[in-house]
């Protein structure tokens, strides 16, 4: 799959001396959804702002659709749509006029048929004549997406797109993102909702303190770094773990009825057989067993701790 964005050794140091990006190198594939994860101040918004032409890099290079973001900024920006974190809209304007104006800013000829398709896809067509001040916060975020799509970009940056919206609306917006991907739009997503990245992303990048720690296919990342937890439900409660079991790295619940065992599902030996044999040797009756795969949140926290 070809790369639509190529970043080489990109850095940014602000006048205050803050180093927001430190030598980021990354290729973003055409048509993929890439989720960028990181704590506040990690450099995610700075990275997006540089690629969108809002911030000038201190060093390095980046190309969007083959166009250098500084020397050929008009061509590069024409390929990009940006949905920012902040809701910055003219609240006394209508939805349709807002997206028409955004399209005009890119020098595009009027095309209400295209705008109708965009608004219908975002469930905004019935609100096309409504003033923005009349819309809910979630609807306003949809308008931001409509503005970003008004000129038909090939790349869409979503900077915390579902911050502050309820769970139902968040899932509706996920469906919108999936439809855009199906149409061939490349999507770069920053989010604090790790389940959002786990649900939608093809690849996951982790940024911390201005450095890109890794970029990996989501499935590979979960396979390589994911762990499973075996929960053992006991027939009768234990006051404490016998010495033979305590050495196996188990956790006993406060009620004494469940024991948790964390293991690497990719290891040659999980240790479960030895664990169950130890229970039998101690005469401890097991009522039930269940396993749970670690989430992307678990993987993220482990990676930031181990790789930072």
From TrEMBL:
GO molecular function: ATP binding
Pfam families reported for this sequence: ABC_tran
InterPro entries, per database record: AAA+_ATPase, ABC_transporter-like_ATP-bd, ABC_transporter-like_CS, ABC_transporter_ATP-binding, P-loop_NTPase
Stretch forming the signal peptide: none
UniProt entry keywords in alphabetical sequence: ATP-binding, Nucleotide-binding, Transport
Domain ABC transporter: 5-234
Stated name of the protein: ABC transporter ATP-binding protein
The species this protein was found in: Albidovulum sediminis
């Amino acid at each position: 799959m070809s790369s639509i964005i190529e970043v080489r050794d990109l850095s940014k140091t602000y006048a205050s001396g803050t180093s927001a990006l430190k030598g980021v190198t990354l290729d973003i594939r055409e048509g993929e959804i890439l989720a960028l994860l990181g704590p506040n101040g990690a450099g995610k918004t700075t990275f997006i702002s540089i690629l969108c032409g809002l911030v000038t890099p201190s060093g390095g290079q980046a190309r969007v659709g083959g166009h250098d973001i500084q020397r050929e900024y008009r061509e590069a920006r024409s390929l990009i749509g940006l949905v920012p974190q902040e809701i910055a809209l003219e609240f006394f304007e209508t939805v349709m006029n807002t997206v028409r104006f955004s399209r005009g800013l890119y020098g595009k000829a009027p095309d209400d048929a295209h705008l109708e398709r965009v608004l219908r896809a975002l469930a905004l067509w019935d609100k096309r004549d409504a003033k923005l001040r009349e819309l809910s916060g979630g609807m306003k975020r949809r308008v931001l997406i409509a503005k970003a799509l008004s000129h038909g970009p090939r790349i869409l940056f979503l900077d915390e797109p579902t911050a502050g919206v309820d769970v139902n609306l968040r899932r509706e917006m996920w469906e919108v993102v999936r439809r855009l991907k199906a149409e061939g739009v490349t999507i770069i997503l920053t989010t604090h909702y790790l389940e959002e990245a786990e649900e939608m992303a093809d690849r996951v990048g982790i940024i911390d303190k201005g450095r890109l720690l890794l970029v990996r296919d989501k499935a590979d990342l979960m396979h390589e770094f994911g762990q499973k937890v075996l929960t053992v439900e006991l027939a009768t409660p234990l006051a404490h773990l016998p010495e033979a079991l305590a050495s196996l790295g188990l956790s006993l619940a406060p009620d004494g009825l469940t024991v948790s065992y964390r293991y690497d599902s990719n290891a040659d030996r999980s240790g479960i057989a030895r664990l169950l044999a130890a229970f039998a040797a101690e005469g401890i009756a097991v009522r039930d067993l269940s396993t749970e795969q670690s989430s992307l949140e678990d993987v993220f926290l482990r990676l930031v701790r181990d790789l930072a």
